[in-house]
Amino acid sequence: LGTLREADFAVPIAAECAAFLAHNRTYIDEDRIVHAQAHQQTLISNEVASYHFSKLLALYPASPLRPDSLLSLGTIQRKGLKLYSQAAVSFKAVIEKHPDSDEARQAYESLANMYDEDMHDYTNATKTYDAIVARYKDDPVVLRGLQAQALIYQDKTSQPMQAIASYRKLAETFKGKEGLEALLKAEKLALYTVRDWKLSIEINERIIAAHPDHDEAVKALFNNAEINEERLKDRDEAIKLYEDLIDRHPKHGLASDAKQRIK
């Protein structure tokens, strides 16, 4: 059935599928052969593969292979033929007609990535990433979506506050390494780009609360003391935070720096 998808074998397998269809016109699972033929053609010719996937969609309305065929057609239109508007129609059809399928999840991500990477349509890209977050909650596709969305806001549309919001949403949903990395990126944006000292302090406090035993939590505590000292000119609060660091982490390298700052 053409499940072996290697370029060296694509031509003979596709030919065998065509021969089978020609000699077994009443085969009850004909859609499976057309589907196999289409996937083999993907390794040979984007145009021919597109034709066979379209044929399956036209001739077999009840086929369980329709979600994969629609997704595959959209992928060919996007990556092989560069027909982005047609690819968008195919991806949206997967989402609308087969919303609970695995293919719908892949279609959402492919659609968002195409808006972002190929079409540079950042408005629709961010909207689609929002839809992914709402639909899939804590699925890995949400992690990738929030990371991509944050980078759009940070690097492509110059909207640092929205980037911070995306990073913070990521950290709320994914508590591990990815969440910590997102908070660190959000704090840098708050401190150096937005220059919102109180927001930077708030994000550092989240790092301390969520990852109390991590080295980055010690750095976050020191950073908050430094912000109070140098940015907010609140020396009493700075001394309090430096002393807190010394009490909590007396053997850490930053403890000696904190002592010097207090002096």
Rounded to the nearest angstrom, the radius of gyration is: 27 Å
What composes the largest sheet? Answer: none
Q: How do the helices and strands follow one another from N- to C-terminus?
A: HHHHHHHHHHHHHH
Outline the low-pLDDT stretches.
Answer: none
| Helicity, as a percent range | over 70%
Counted by DSSP, the helix tally is 14
Count of β-strands: 0
Distance between the termini: 77 Å
The average pLDDT score comes to 97
Q: What structural category do the secondary elements indicate?
A: mainly alpha
Query: What proportion of the residues form beta strands (DSSP E)?
Result: under 5%
- The geometry reads as elongated
Please provide a written account of the structure:
By secondary structure, the protein is mainly alpha-helical. Helix content is 79%, strand content 0%. The chain contains 14 helices and no strands. The chain has helices at residues 7-23, 30-42, 46-59, 66-80, 84-97, 102-118, 122-136, 140-156, 160-173, 177-194, 197-210, 215-231, 235-248, 253-262. The longest helix has 18 residues, at 177-194. The radius of gyration is 27 Å and the shape is elongated. The termini are far apart.
